[in-house]
Design a protein that fits this description.
Length: about 230
């Protein structure tokens, strides 16, 4: 994708790399919003908690995700976007699976509490990692792609909330979310491997006469041309 600060939406949505990053934010940030909306109904109906406990647990979940998203900044800097996003999705999937296996009517079992806590860690890491991935995949178009990812991710909160809410607060809603997370782990792995292959393929082709590698980013598919390599 050529560098352009005024990319048309159809250009962004036609790039599958960008679509995967959008879906990442739909599942991480949008999932955070959706589960935050779903949680009170689930706790009241499935775990039979009282209003006060429901309010405190929901508030704690939302607060922890927001705080951890900020705190994971240095970690995602160190791991880089792809690794931290995939790690966050794996942790999210583990947390969702544990939470979904909780027994009915007993929130104080180890599974609901630990599952929710693990979810907060995974979602915070995945959301932070997604925006660390954007400048690596699209260094010339970070602004437009970042805007699209953020917008679609926020929209995903409403879509997932509707889907989870339609299931009436039952554990099967979390099973559905777990399946979506697994799907994203597979997509992220494919995207990361594809960018890895592009990076090393172009690096091998673009060696100057002195044996020095040309510096480039894998996401800029049209960044280096033969003419630029010969005359740049």
């Amino acid at each position: 994708m050529p560098a352009d600060s005024h990319l048309a939406l159809w250009t962004i949505f036609s790039d599958w790399h960008a679509l995967v990053l959008m879906l990442n934010y739909v599942v991480s940030f949008g999932g955070f919003l959706a589960i935050g909306n779903f949680l009170p109904n689930h706790l009241l109906k499935y775990h039979e908690t009282d209003d006060t406990v429901t309010l405190l647990i929901t508030a704690a979940f939302l607060t922890l995700v927001c705080v951890k998203r900020v705190l994971y900044g240095p970690l995602t800097d160190k791991l880089e976007g792809p690794n931290s996003t995939i790690l966050g999705m794996v942790v999210t999937g583990i947390g969702a699976f544990i939470f979904a296996s909780s027994p009915r009517g007993n929130f104080w079992d180890w599974r609901p509490i630990s599952g929710l806590f693990i979810l907060t860690s995974g979602m915070g890491c995945a959301a932070s990692g997604t925006f660390k991935w954007i400048p690596l995949a699209f260094p010339g178009n970070t602004g437009p792609i970042g805007g699209a990812v953020g917008s679609i991710g926020a929209l995903g909160g409403f879509i997932l909330s509707t889907i989870l809410g339609a299931m009436g607060g039952e554990a099967k809603s979390i099973h559905l979310f777990t399946g979506l997370v697994i799907f994203m782990i597979v997509l992220d792995g494919i995207l990361d491997y594809q960018e890895y292959k592009e990076h090393h393929s172009v690096k091998q082709m673009c060696q100057d006469r002195r044996g020095k590698s040309v510096v480039f980013h894998a996401g800029d598919h049209d960044l280096i041309t033969a003419h630029e390599f010969e005359h740049g």
